[in-house]
Write a structure and sequence with these properties.
Length: 241
């Protein structure tokens, strides 16, 4: 299971889970799953359905202000996906959404600091935080390659993971598993819902999005119930798009 978050703050809101719920969710997962780092998850997820790991898309400043002390206290590793062109800026791609809230993104200094912390793995969320659906193969390759090379230049270490912006099937475009592998990525992450990745291609890994409106009871329910209704809803959405 891969948990997907965006922003954490004192109160829940636009793309934001409350800090209180975040802690309660992590404690619950610690008790019932084997929480691990992304390298271990990618290596072993096909054979161990009880593995879990935590991801954050968009690299918001909450990673420093809210998330860092929590994961240090609980000793939980996480992966943060960075939209490279927006480092030090804010979520401009959300400007036209209902309920929009401006959320600041980490600076390069902060990202470099996190990359030196053993609790963090830094991955790419592309250069421009755009869907890849309408890009040519050369444009797609540029979007992926430039984001990876920029991160590696700043961090002085290999960047192995990519998360698709928006992350539904229509957003994959020309970013095939072969292309991602050729560019040096070890795995890629979608927003397609599923609680495990036992049969998934490593360049199409599915995640469990935690929503701001999820109570701790909701969270426990959809992780534990035998029939995964959110997965069924996701598959229906795939059929009609």
């Amino acid at each position: 299971m891969i948990l997907m978050y965006h922003n954490i703050d004192e109160k829940a809101g636009f793309n934001t889970v409350s800090a209180e719920n975040f802690v309660r969710q992590l404690r619950f997962v610690q008790q019932h799953w084997q929480l691990t780092d992304m390298d271990t998850y990618v290596r072993e997820c096909r054979t161990n359905p009880r593995l879990a790991t935590v991801t954050f898309d968009d690299a918001y400043s909450c990673i420093i202000t809210q998330v860092l002390p929590i994961i240090h206290e609980l000793d939980i590793p996480i992966t943060v996906f960075v939209p490279v062109s927006y480092v030090g800026k804010y979520n401009q791609w959300d400007d036209n959404l209902s309920g929009y809230k401006r959320i600041n993104i980490l600076s390069w200094n902060e990202i470099e600091r996190l990359s030196q912390d053993s609790h963090f793995i830094i991955g790419s969320h592309g250069m421009s935080h755009i869907s890849l659906k309408n890009l040519s193969k050369s444009q797609t390759e540029s979007e992926l390659r430039e984001s990876k090379e920029s991160l590696e230049r700043h961090l002085q270490k290999q960047v192995r993971y990519f998360a698709f912006p928006y992350g539904q099937r229509k957003d994959f475009g020309c970013a095939t598993p072969d292309l991602l592998q050729e560019l040096g990525f070890k795995a890629a992450f979608t927003t397609l819902w599923k609680r495990n990745n036992l049969r998934e291609n490593p360049y199409r890994l599915r995640r469990v999005e935690v929503k701001p409106t999820d109570s701790i009871d909701d969270f426990q329910c959809y992780l534990n119930r035998k029939i995964d209704f959110r997965f069924i809803k996701q598959e229906f959405k795939n059929l009609i798009r």
